[in-house]
Amino acid sequence: MDSAFKIESFEQSAKEISVSDLKSINRCLVLVPHPDDESLACAGLIAKLNKQGAQVKFILTTDGSQSHPNSKLYPAQRLAKLREEELKEAITLLGLSPNTISFYKGRDSALPARGEDGFENLVSRLATDLDGFKPDLVLVPYELDPHRDHRATWQMLMAALERGNVNRPRIWEYPIWLYELADERDLPKLGNDELKYLNIASEIELKKKCINAHSSQTTKLIDDDPTGFILSEKMIANFTTGREYFMERGKINPNASLSEDYFETLYSSNIDPWNFEKSEYEREKYATSIQAIPQRQYEMGLEIGCSIGIFTNMIQALCSKLIAMDISGTALQEAKIRLANQNHVEFRLGGIPQNFPSEHFDLMVMSEVGYYLSMDDLMVTKNLIEKQLNAGGILLLVHWTHFVVDYPLSGDEVHACFLNSSLKHLNGSRTPDYRIDVFQK
């Protein structure tokens, strides 16, 4: 099968990874579906990271036992053990300890994907490992790399990040079988600067040694299975050009604030996309949030991101006047209908920080909004809040703390930003899913 992947145009579009970019990486987690993927995709990068003192850990998601399914000399269990040893040898060549490898032992060529038996158990284990290591960079096969184990490994990462409580790491996807087996549906649609390359000319000989350490895949070591897999010279040549390629796609590495169109699309298809009105979880969170606010009457209040007005209807009871704003006109119209009899509530269409109100406030509420912003926009918003909160005024922050692939920031990053502000931290609490912090000027 000829691949639809156009290697030359792909590689020509890549932007070089800078020295400063590399220096910013302190903890790197490498997700490896099969022993040899790490050497093919990123041995040069790993060597550079190790040299600069970064911590690197590996997770092998399958047992690698099915490359020669008809071998009598190397039945599945023996082959899996051999391939583990080959991986350990490659990692040792890179100057790292084999103890940096975790073996998940999923079945080779049948690694469970989302919705399949065994997937959730692997996700739980990966979520625990992510929480323990807290990587700032994760290397993972490209989402649509044409091998089921590669795609399942990508899905595991996304699900584990959503389940855990780690700050968003950078995610670099590496291509393997995209070079040889891709059809049109597999091809990445990359924006400007989403493809990166690392110059590994000084590591190329080491990389070749690492690839060759996987002798069961690169030689005829196992010679009693004519149908057995072997890496062709052509395939290996894709990875020994002196460059390594990684995709840092905006889809899973958002660095811009979410747009009005993003929210309009959500609300147009479902006026209550987060089930604010009927969710017991939301009711409990709202009640806890209201209780966290010092109970007094506030002359002037601001709710940033009022959505369809469920929480607004609770906040308004504390305010003589309340401005409730949202970036979505569809959501805002629903909120206006819900609070039609509350004449002291004014609704405004707009996003932050660009449409931040000019008034000063005694109470500000930002619930489930901050992680939609880029860090730059969050810092501008923080400065505006510090400036326009009256002396003695209260700021309530409430945010979901799990990873969401679309969001530029995590809830914890939002709250950490304000914990480093000029505002006094009055109190805080957290559950397994969200956190609350109350500040005073």
TrEMBL record:
PANTHER family: BLR3841 PROTEIN, N-ACETYLGLUCOSAMINYL-PHOSPHATIDYLINOSITOL DE-N-ACETYLASE-RELATED. SUPFAM superfamilies: LmbE-like (SSF102588), S-adenosyl-L-methionine-dependent methyltransferases (SSF53335). GO terms for molecular function: hydrolase activity, acting on carbon-nitrogen (but not peptide) bonds, in linear amides; S-adenosylmethionine-dependent methyltransferase activity. This is LmbE family protein. GO terms for biological process: oligosaccharide biosynthetic process. InterPro entries: GlcNAc_PI_deacetylase-related, LmbE-like_dom_sf, SAM-dependent_MTases_sf, SAM-MeTfrase_NodS-like. It comes from the Bacteria.
